[in-house]
Design a protein that fits this description.
The complex is a heterotrimer of chains A (about 300), B (about 350) and C (about 525).
Chain A lengths: L1 H31 L7 H19 L2 H22 L7 H24 L4 E3 L12 H4 L2 H7 L4 H19 L1 H11 L1 H6 L4 H26 L3 E3 L6 H11 L4 H23 L4 H4 L2 H14 L10
Antiparallel strand pairs in A: 1-2
Helix pairs in contact in A: 1-7, 1-10, 1-11, 1-12, 2-3, 2-4, 2-10, 2-11, 3-4, 3-10, 7-8, 11-12, 12-14
Chain B lengths: L5 H30 L4 H13 L4 H23 L7 H18 L5 H29 L3 H7 L1 H13 L31 H18 L1 H11 L1 H6 L4 H28 L12 H11 L4 H25 L5 H16 L8
Helix pairs in contact in B: 1-14, 2-13, 3-8, 3-11, 3-12, 3-13, 4-5, 4-7, 4-11, 5-6, 5-11, 8-9, 12-13, 12-14, 13-14
Chain C lengths: L4 E10 L2 E11 L4 E5 L6 H8 L7 E6 L2 E3 L4 H6 L2 E4 L11 H6 L5 E2 L2 E2 L1 H14 L15 H14 L4 E5 L7 H16 L3 E5 L3 H7 L2 E6 L2 E7 L5 H9 L3 E2 L12 E11 L5 E11 L2 E6 L6 H9 L6 E6 L2 E2 L5 H7 L1 E4 L3 H5 L6 H6 L9 E2 L2 E2 L1 H14 L16 H13 L5 E5 L7 H16 L3 E6 L2 H7 L2 E6 L2 E7 L5 H8 L27 E2 L3
Parallel strand pairs in C: 3-10, 3-11, 6-9, 9-10, 16-23, 16-24, 19-22, 22-23
Antiparallel strand pairs in C: 1-2, 1-4, 4-5, 7-8, 11-12, 13-26, 14-15, 14-17, 17-18, 20-21, 24-25
Helix pairs in contact in C: 14-15
The chains are: A mainly alpha (about 300), B mainly alpha (about 350), C alpha/beta (about 525).
């Protein structure tokens, strides 16, 4: 019985972790190239909405994912261009984007689907969950991989890909240099704006995936502000990890676990108003505990 | 030496970007409307008449009270170079306290109202102090902690009014009614005493920012915190003060809504109208500058009331106003001349 | 054979200002070529043009006889130019070899080929005796070693012409000597060096030829072997200068500042200042000499209250102030001219009056019950603007419109008008023109005559020697010497700065006079021809 409990908990953890993990990997890339991306929340929300639009009208989950990727890419343009060519204020841009995402998805929800609050319909096709029978009987791997979406598997692979990109390739070296000393990188002929634009836009694809996973991964539904702070938690993971992808993944695992615990507590009868805040309370506790050690200071202006 | 009007000149430099951004947002919004098969001109006409036609004016003013209040919540820290993204949580804490206290006081009337409001202000101010404490003594960026603190406040309040504090006579998630004598006196139509109170608070901030030593220190810290510290301004003390006042105003707004309009704490009743985000955008539009913030707050409030009229007359969802506001802020963030004093 | 670098008729205008008015410059292969000039003479503009940072309005650049257009630093690098900036442009978190190969990494497949990179860097370092540990983190290295990394960066990019911008400003005399050896090795290899400096002795010691600039044009081309210090100075300022500074005798009074056993720890726990003790009397200027980064900033910040100290006492006129806030210390009589006027000393977007009042704003004369008395604030600001000759339109204009010298005058005006018992002046004349230098020096001496205690920190040894009554030498966070200025000589202090014993043979130097020849012009007092 306790075994069953832990298996379900583990699977719930991994499911809850995927969007946060993808968002925090994007956050890591942006932070490394010197753009403090606080718009993760809004980017993910836009992804979630357009994944539903794509799936509903395109008739396949793949169309949903594609729509999410394109939509988030377009939505991220103001951030990518604003912090580079236009020299805008990064924090204000991100705050505006988050509010825009919230307003725009609510508006379009009413315009496109004619509903408010939540939209669900059998015509929204979910992303298939992979059930690999040949792995089923291997003790740990079987549990870990059972009934997860391809996006989840991809997100795991991306931890390594991001790490490899950052710390082994010339592009990663330059990207880190651009983030640390843009003047020095520029003086050595590395185009700072180009690196930033490409990184911010490239990382936005991860948020498209995160959004699609959120709205098409577990349930096929979009509801207003359904990201519910996941983007901010991902940002906290980036800060706690000091922009290291491996540590960020570890932090996401922790946050995914708290999410799963919340669900678990709900299933044993606690009101969901209280269980829903578990991830945030635990996140706050973790930052306070960790704050003495890491210097995650950030002052506006 | 030429004779100049510094306030005018400063406003002059800021005005064009703000105006152009608003205009441009309406153009973008118009395109969105066109692409969704609506006539932008009809929609915008309904928006304006919804906001400014005589019968709707009291509604606009009533709506403006919380919006201007939440604008100040964001503007005051912004002026000092800080971000309080926790306005919603502080609003809920204040509203909840104001809904509970009158039910437990042994007396009613004026004293009960004052005590309830004071309790709401203090509770919300203290909740805001948590974020200041995090930044000052633990180095946690306030913009993250203040934002994350919204969730527990909202969740706990929601739980309380659904279970322990629930008004058992109704099926809705809301607390028990506040006695008649403990409600804010009404003035005209939907307007109650809360509106003049909020006007007084706004004027106090305008005066403070322009005319007092504390205001000077607030502005200088916002422009260059290192310079302020070097000049002997106690930044930590200032941050605590600013956050307490900011949170306190949010609490005041919550208590005015609860004691003056809802007469109880309704789950999601304080948050559904998006006063917090709207106020935050208004403050950003004006860069925290007091008169500009108040003006922007009034403008955004008018837009939202107009949005209600627009939705009724044209079936364009009123959330469009939120989109227009966000686009305005985005354009401001993209195109307003950047400050260079922090490298 | 064509010259390594040939520049003809370079013109660069910034609005009404002509930064370069037809500059010609020829640098031969295998020579060290000095570029001298005051602040604002146009050296930086010329170097930025050579390195492709800015584009000239007119003129041409030839490298080895071939006409080139340098549109970016990358263009300059491709054409064999390399530059070592005064402020290093290094990635602290990366290793030495990563810094050097950055942007030109050897690769194996998709991966940076660390082994090849390390070997290439080590080989270069070996060849020019620039010893570095290729795997060290740059953030952990000393200033001298970082400079070697900068030079290696240029050499890795096959620089034939190396521009060194004020390279010795941050070095100890010993490190500067080592740099001179490296420079000689580089020119022996057939490369050329443009050596930008304002230190007379270095330029005479190291270079083959010197080009002197004044007001954006070349004022002299000199063969180092056949010129004299006076000739270089004349070309720089356009008239003969006296290198003396008048420092009248002032009777010193009571102890104003007394620091004992002070230690300051950095965030990572290592000591920036250990067991420092010093006293400053009324009517006395005490100079702290030290190569940048030896703890003087931390010492000053601890006295001013901007940095917490780990131990020891700080007494102002007998009162312990070590535990007090910045504001409380200011009220008790501490004025402080900070090193960084733009990011610490002023708020750019705030008006001159706001900048001039900070620190005084709570005084009775400017407020009643927290209400600011605007008329008085403006009147005060206007008086200071006139008295200190700040060139600004009016007191309500933001100070981010001001030049460096004028901005510094705002800071100096505010701090000196404190009537504070103690004035801390940290690099008070860095990066300002000679007129402002003279003005600020005169003001400091006036305050000394009024009986104020002045603690002066400067990286310019000559400024310290010219102004101070007593000189302290700080090395690796410790005060290693405390000398009356008549016993101080440049040689002796130079040795102490580098951690030596200071037992250099005594040099004859008149009391109350800067030793001659002065190594720098920054304290030169002008005299009409």
């Amino acid at each position: 019985m306790s075994n069953l409990f832990s298996v379900i908990l583990l699977q719930a953890t991994l499911q809850a972790m995927t969007p946060i993990l993808l968002a925090s990997l994007a956050g890591v890339l942006c932070a490394r190239v010197g753009v403090f991306n606080m718009a993760l929340e809004g980017q993910m929300l836009v992804g979630a909405f357009f994944a539903v639009v794509g799936s509903y009208y395109g008739g396949s989950a793949l169309a949903g994912v594609a729509a999410a990727l394109v939509a988030v890419l377009v939505f991220t343009l103001p951030l990518a261009l604003g912090t580079t060519w236009l020299r805008g204020d990064n924090i204000s841009i991100c705050i505006a984007l988050n509010l825009l995402a919230s307003g725009l998805t609510s508006f379009l929800l009413r315009i496109v689907f004619g509903v408010s609050g939540t939209f669900s319909d059998p015509a929204i096709l979910p992303i298939v969950k992979l059930r690999w029978l040949w792995l089923r009987n291997i003790p740990v791997a079987g549990i870990l991989t059972w009934a997860q979406t391809p996006i989840t598997f991809l997100s795991w692979a991306l931890i390594g890909v991001v790490w490899f990109l950052l710390f082994r390739t010339p592009i990663g070296l330059r990207l880190r240099g651009v983030g640390e000393r843009p003047d020095a990188a520029q003086a050595l002929g590395v185009d700072v704006s180009r690196y930033r634009i490409v990184t911010v836009l490239g990382s936005s694809l991860l948020l498209g995936l995160a959004g699609a996973q959120l709205s098409l991964g577990t349930v096929s539904v979009f509801s207003e502000d359904m990201t519910a702070g996941r983007g901010w938690i991902a940002l906290v993971a980036v800060m706690l990890a000091r922009s290291d992808p491996l540590w960020a993944a570890a932090a996401c695992l922790l946050f995914g676990f708290t999410d799963a615990i919340g669900l678990r507590l709900q299933s044993i009868g606690l009101p969901n108003q209280l269980t829903d805040i578990t991830p945030y309370v635990i996140t706050l506790i973790v930052i306070v505990l960790n704050s003495g050690r890491s210097s995650i200071r950030l002052r506006m202006r | 030496m030429s004779f100049t009007f510094p306030h005018l000149r400063r406003a002059h430099r800021r005005l064009p970007t703000a105006l152009w951004s608003i205009l441009a947002s309406f153009v973008v919004g118009g395109l969105v409307l066109l692409s969704t098969g609506n006539n932008p001109l009809t929609a915008y006409r309904a928006l304006v008449s919804g906001a400014l036609s005589l019968p709707n004016l009291p509604d606009t003013l009533n709506w403006a009270m919380p919006v201007v209040g939440m604008t100040l919540v964001a503007a005051i820290p912004l002026r000092a170079g800080m971000l309080n993204l926790g306005g919603d949580g502080q609003l809920v804490v204040g509203g909840l306290v104001a809904a509970i206290v009158p039910l437990h006081l042994p007396f009613t009337g004026f004293a009960a109202i004052i005590i309830s409001m004071a309790a709401a202000i203090i509770a919300a101010g203290l909740y805001a102090l948590l974020a200041a404490w995090g930044e000052i003594s633990r180095g946690i960026p306030m913009l993250i902690s203040s934002l994350l603190l919204n969730y527990p406040a909202v969740g706990v309040a929601s739980y309380l009014v659904r279970f322990p504090l629930r008004d058992t006579t109704s099926n809705l998630p809301q607390s028990a009614m506040i006695p008649l004598d403990d409600r804010l006196p009404a003035l005209v139509g939907p307007l109650n005493v809360g509106a003049p109170v909020m006007i007084a608070v706004a004027l106090a901030y305008v005066w403070f920012e322009r005319r007092t030593v504390g205001g000077l220190e607030l502005r200088l810290s916002g422009i260059n915190a290192r310079f302020a510290r070097y000049g002997g301004i106690h930044l930590a003390r200032q941050a605590y003060g600013v956050m307490f006042v900011s949170g306190g105003i949010a609490g005041l707004v919550g208590s005015i809504i609860v004691l003056g309009s809802h007469f109880r704490f309704i789950d999601d009743g304080l948050l559904a109208p998006s006063f917090g985000p709207t106020g935050f955008m208004a403050a950003l539009l004006a860069g925290g500058q007091p008169l500009g913030s108040v003006a922007a707050g009034l403008f955004f409030a008018a837009m939202q009331i107009g949005g209600v009229g627009m939705q009724r007359d044209t079936e364009v969802p009123r959330v469009l106003t939120m989109v227009l506001q966000a686009i305005t802020i985005l354009l401001i963030a993209l195109f307003r001349r950047q400050r260079t004093d922090r490298e | 054979m064509a010259a390594a670098l040939e520049v003809r008729g370079i013109v660069k205008r910034y609005g009404a200002l002509v930064a370069n008015a037809g500059v010609d410059l020829v640098v031969e292969r295998g020579e060290i070529h000095g570029i001298m000039g005051e602040n604002g003479a146009g050296k930086s503009t010329l170097m930025n043009i050579l390195y492709g940072v800015t584009q000239p309005d007119a003129g041409e650049i030839r490298l080895g006889g071939a006409l080139v257009r340098l549109r970016s630093p990358l263009d300059a690098i491709r054409n064999g130019l390399g530059m070592v900036h005064q402020a290093f442009r290094l990635f602290d978190s990366l290793s030495v070899w990563e810094n050097i190969v950055f942007g030109r990494e050897p690769v194996r497949g998709w991966v940076v080929d660390g082994r090849t990179a390390r070997a290439a860097v080590a080989e270069l370092a070996e060849r020019f005796s620039l010893s570095v540990n290729v795997d060290a983190r740059v953030g952990d290295l000393s200033v001298g070693v970082r400079q070697r990394v900068e030079i290696l960066k240029a050499l890795y990019r096959e620089a034939r012409i190396l521009i060194l911008d004020e390279p010795t400003a941050v070095l100890t005399p010993r490190e500067a000597d080592a740099l001179a050896d490296v420079m000689r090795a580089l020119v022996a290899d057939g490369r050329s060096i443009l050596f930008v400096t304002h230190k007379l002795r270095e330029v005479l010691d190291v270079t083959d030829r010197i080009t002197v600039m004044r007001h954006g044009a070349v004022s002299a081309r000199l063969e180092t072997a056949r010129t004299s210090e006076q000739e270089v100075v004349r070309a720089m300022v356009g008239r003969a200068v006296s290198l003396d500074i008048q420092r009248p005798d002032v009777a010193t009074g009571d102890v104003v500042l007394e620091v004992d056993h002070l230690s300051v720890k950095m965030e990572h726990g290592h000591s920036a200042v250990s067991d420092a003790g010093l006293t400053v009397h009324a009517g006395e200027i005490v100079g702290i000499a030290g190569v940048a980064g030896n703890g003087q900033s931390e010492l000053i910040e601890a006295i001013a209250g901007l940095r917490r100290h780990a131990g020891g006492t700080i007494r102002l006129r007998g009162t312990e102030i070590g535990g007090l806030s910045v504001g409380a210390r200011r009220r008790l009589g501490v004025a402080y001219i900070p090193e960084d006027r733009a990011t610490v000393g002023t708020a750019g977007r705030a008006s001159a009056s706001e900048n001039l009042i900070l620190g005084f704003q709570r005084r009775r004369e400017f407020q009643r019950w927290g209400h600011l008395l605007h008329e008085r604030v403006l009147g005060w600001a206007q008086r200071l603007i006139v008295r200190y000759d700040v060139r600004i339109r009016d007191a309500q204009t933001p100070v981010d419109t001001l030049s460096g010298g004028n901005l510094q005058k705002v800071v100096v005006a505010r701090e000196l008008e404190h009537q504070a018992a103690l004035i801390i002046a940290e690099q008070p004349t860095r990066g300002v023109d000679i007129g402002a230098i003279e003005f600020i020096h005169r003001k400091l001496l006036e305050e000394r005559a009024r009986g104020r205690a002045i603690l002066l920190v400067s990286a310019e040894l000559s400024e310290i020697l010219a102004l101070s009554d007593r000189i302290l030498v700080i090395y690796e966070g410790r005060i290693v010497a405390n000398l009356p200025s008549r016993e101080a000589s440049e040689e002796r202090i130079g040795s102490l700065l580098a951690g030596g014993s200071g037992d250099a043979p005594p040099v004859e130097a008149g009391p109350l006079r800067a030793p001659s020849p002065a190594p720098s012009l920054s304290d030169a007092k002008l005299r009409d021809p």
